[in-house]
Amino acid sequence: MKSSFKLAGVIIFMFFLASCSTGRRSAEFTLEGVQPSPLVCPADPRTFADAVPIPDFQEGNGCGITHGYRVMALDSIAFSEPAQITCAEANSLNVWVQSSVQKAAHEIYGQPVVGLKVAASYACRARNNVRGAKLSEHGHGNAIDIASFTLADGREIVVLTGYYGNAQDQRFLRTIRAQACGIFHTVLGPGSDSYHRDHIHLDMQTLRRRGGVYCH
Fold this sequence. Notes:
Strand content: 25-35%
Number of helices: 4
CATH topology: Muramoyl-pentapeptide Carboxypeptidase, domain 2
Structural class: alpha+beta
Helix content: 25-40%
Number of strands: 13
Distance between the termini: 66 Å
Shape: globular
């Protein structure tokens, strides 16, 4: 009799765990309409960054990275924390930094950018952290959020305060954000919505049906 009660208890407990696990995953995000990142690697990030490859992994719920790298610095620009991103994201980030960020920094401030504050890279979560929304591109390592830029003299250009701040900072941040469109497939920042008021979001989401990018 006791063994029957024990067996029933174990079955109920296992069912409870399974239900909780399934419930948490379905409540966090949905995979409807979400496409995995294309397996494209234009160049090995180790040729232009302080980066190391990470083994491909999948979390079993839609999240995971293929062709991923842990990037600590991009050329002479140090990251505030390592970014776990795909090879394609790292390549686009390098193109943007070299063709836009550094050029604008020299034109506007007369000096280069030497540091980036990484607000987010790989994270298994819903878009904008809204429960039930689609899986974020961060869940594929296909996105990075930049909160600030540090100049050679130590000055920090913060997205939250600089985007609507003095003329120099506004010009710098608005220029590099506009020029990111096309290099990245999605570009969001202050004014897009309340979720992006303090950073610039850059991702390589698989192009939409009409082949367009989304920059808002």
